[in-house]
Write a structure and sequence with these properties.
With about 625 residues, the chain is α+β, with helices and mostly antiparallel strands. It contains 19 helices and 21 strands. The strands form five sheets. It has a seven-stranded mixed sheet with strand order 4-7-2-1-10-13-12. A five-stranded mixed sheet has the order 15-16-17-19-18. Helix 8 crosses helix 9, helix 13 packs parallel to helix 15 and helix 15 runs parallel beside helix 17. The protein is globular and about 80 Å long. The N and C termini lie far apart (about 50 Å). Bound molecules: ligand BES and zinc ion. Ligand BES binds next to strand 18 and helix 4.
């Protein structure tokens, strides 16, 4: 592998591994992570040319203006460049740029190139021979794709407005002018000005206590490690903090914090379980920010602070695998990061594998096996949705050039990726696999990684020249070929035997099973999802009468039920459907439901047309971007 040697090798911090890092590193410079230069590490979703000139550090000084829905101020970028580089190219999506100067205040020429519908535009800045620093005065546009601005009405407390960002995969270029590529790691710091009385949090340790003065509060943050720029995140609102353990805690609106704290009471134990699997937690604190219901994802692994949907709060901790997942990204994703979105499975597949290992450690093997089995169902559906096992989009390593970066966001990356790692684990044995896994993160801490690097590392450190083992693993087939290789290991066949039997019996007329009352959420989901998609109305009546599914507060079960109801044009579920679609904006729930409604021209489309205008203001730009195409 060819690496661009860091120009300032002296900046490399020796001995930054291990648990003793916090104090030492908070004052030291972050090591500059290398840029990978192999063709497979070329990011087709960024305009940057980092081999010529790259950003190493971002310092933000920004005002959050709820009236104009803009974040604005200065971004000061430290760069490394070839001595003869004439320009540096940043990523931009709709930024309004006032001026760009170098570190001594001399103006630099810049141009914003043609806008690509997926990528935004290149921001090309001329460099003088001595330019080492850029000072950009700018503000984000009100429609910035990373940002959602909520009115007080759209929050739980209804008193103050709210803001949050979502950077992954390529949204941060709508509010931060930098090289927005996961392979160009940058340390960063920020000073954030908000209206007095509001609280700002970011995905980094705070560097001082906030100061309130003259109608504003000022918060400061500093991320001492170099991270992929999609990991810079902010939220501002009526937020309070509650400790969950020595290094874990919870941020939420006051109205949400009690329920969230009960649901999250295992968080500290999860960190311990993850460390056992992966090695020491590298980021200091692990906090969870529970957002208002319009958060577009289940969770987002922003370093030091997972951003999470409130829809994971079921009241019985049955959906907390989501937290295990985001926590696991503190290694897979945040320490070793996909260099490009073509290798997204390295983030999500490894994390989904680890998520289930953490679940096994905390809640037992049966629970983990159930979640694995549901994952395999989801994987099979993803293969179908991609056009079958011959489709190139069912390979783990993708080719997304010319396509939207998030087209790889499917259960191929998550579940085929996880199945691959479980298969390797089963073949080599857990002890050997775990030792390799720890080593992988040790060897790639704070670095970009590719599929090719993954395969080379596994061959060098796990297979170690054992030809017959190599054949057995089918490594290249898993990563580069479409479909699911025949060596995939599965959870025990009887994992959901009871639910599958009950599902078949119910479909052919038996009473709604009483055992439901004793089933876990995962068992209930399997039962519902295995029912035929077309059922007589009487069968749906029986389910509703027995389990009250229209009113369930478990978002996953509600979604499974509404999907089934919708495919049967089941009118008694319509009020529940409307309530669900207008009370939360998680893309995984609302997008499939609206798409299913819209494709049923006679029954569903009128319902969608009635509900969407009401629901839309709640939804994040990332979600409305897709749903607006349905012309509802
Ligand atoms: N990193 C993802 C979210 C993401 C992926 C955002 C790609 C933007 C682009 C996060 O870790 C994730 O996978 N969230 C899942 C939940 C998880 C339990 C599978 C989600 O949001 O549904
Ligand atoms: Zn994830």
């Amino acid at each position: 592998m060819k690496l661009l040697a860091p120009l300032l090798a002296a900046l490399l911090v020796a001995g930054c591994h291990g648990a003793t890092e916090n104090r030492a590193e908070s004052t030291a410079q972050a090591a500059v992570a290398p840029i990978l230069t192999t063709p497979d590490a070329k990011d087709t979703h960024s305009f940057a040319n980092p081999v010529e000139a790259r950003v190493t550090h971002v310092a933000l000084d920004l005002d959050v203006d709820f009236d104009t829905k803009r974040i604005g101020g200065t971004a000061t970028l430290d760069i490394q460049r070839k001595p003869d580089a004439r320009q540096i190219v940043l990523d931009d999506n709709g930024l309004e740029i006032d001026s760009i100067a170098d570190g001594s205040g001399k103006a630099l020429q810049f141009t914003v190139g043609a806008k690509d519908p997926n990528l935004g535009a290149p921001l090309e800045i001329s460099l003088r021979p001595d330019t080492q620093r850029l000072v950009i005065r700018y503000r984000s546009a009100p429609e910035a794709g990373a940002l959602q601005w909520l009115t007080p009405q759209q929050t739980a407390g209804k008193k103050l407005p709210f803001l949050f960002s979502q950077g992954e995969s390529i949204e941060n270029r709508s509010w931060i002018p930098t090289q927005d590529s996961p392979g160009i790691r940058q340390s960063w710091e920020a000073t954030i000005h908000v209206p007095a009385g509001m609280t700002a949090v970011m995905s980094a340790p705070k560097s001082a206590e906030p100061i309130t003065q003259g109608g504003e509060s000022v918060f400061t943050f500093k991320m001492p490690h170099s991270v992929a720029p999609y990991m810079i995140a902010i939220s501002v609102g009526d937020l309070t903090f509650r400790s969950l353990g020595p290094r874990t805690g919870l941020w939420a609106e006051p109205a949400t914090i009690d329920a969230a704290a009960r649901e999250l009471s295992d968080t500290e134990k999860m960190v311990a379980a993850a460390e056992k699997l992966y090695g020491p937690y590298a980021w200091g604190r692990y906090d969870v920010l529970v957002l208002p219901p319009s958060f577009p994802y289940g969770g987002m692994e922003n370093p030091t602070m997972t951003f999470a949907t409130p829809t994971f709060i079921a009241g019985d901790k049955s959906l907390v695998s989501l937290i295990a997942h985001e926590l696991a990204h503190s290694w897979s994703g945040n320490l070793a990061t996909n260099a490009t979105w073509d290798d997204f499975w390295l983030n999500e597949g490894m994390t989904t594998y680890a998520e289930r290992r953490i679940v096994e450690e905390l809640y037992g093997k049966k629970t983990a096996d159930e979640q694995i089995a549901l994952g395999i169902d989801a994987m099979n559906k993803a293969v179908k949705d991609a056009g079958g096992p011959g489709s190139p989009d069912t390979a783990l390593h993708l080719n997304l050039s010319g396509r939207a970066s998030d087209e790889g966001l499917t259960d191929i990356a998550y579940e085929k990726g996880a199945a691959f790692l479980r298969t390797v684990e089963a073949i080599v044995g857990r002890d050997k696999f775990d030792a390799w896994l720890k080593g992988w993160f040790d060897r790639h801490r704070f670095q970009p990684v590719t599929s090719a690097m993954f395969l080379a590392d596994i061959r060098q450190n796990l297979v170690k020249g054992d030809k017959s083992l190599d054949d057995k693993l089918m490594l290249d087939r898993w990563v580069y070929k479409p479909g699911i290789p025949p060596n995939m290991v599965r959870p025990p066949l009887d994992t959901f035997a009871e639910q599958d039997k009950a599902s078949t019996a119910f479909a052919s007329g038996s009473a709604a099973p009483q055992a439901w009352a004793s089933w876990t959420t995962d068992e209930r989901l399997r039962f519902l999802n295995r029912l035929p998609r077309k059922l007589p109305k009487g069968r749906l009546d029986a389910l509703q009468a027995a389990y009250g599914l229209n009113g369930t507060g478990n978002s996953e079960i509600r979604f499974a039920w509404l999907s089934l109801a919708l495919s049967n044009r089941y009118d008694p579920a319509s009020p529940s459907l409307e309530q669900f679609l207008t009370s939360q904006g998680r893309g995984k729930f609302v997008s499939p439901l609206f798409k299913a409604l819209a494709s049923d021209k006679q029954w569903g489309l009128p319902i969608a047309k009635r509900i969407y205008p009401k629901a839309r203001p709640l939804y994040h730009p990332l979600v409305t971007r897709g749903l607006d195409k349905l012309s509802l």
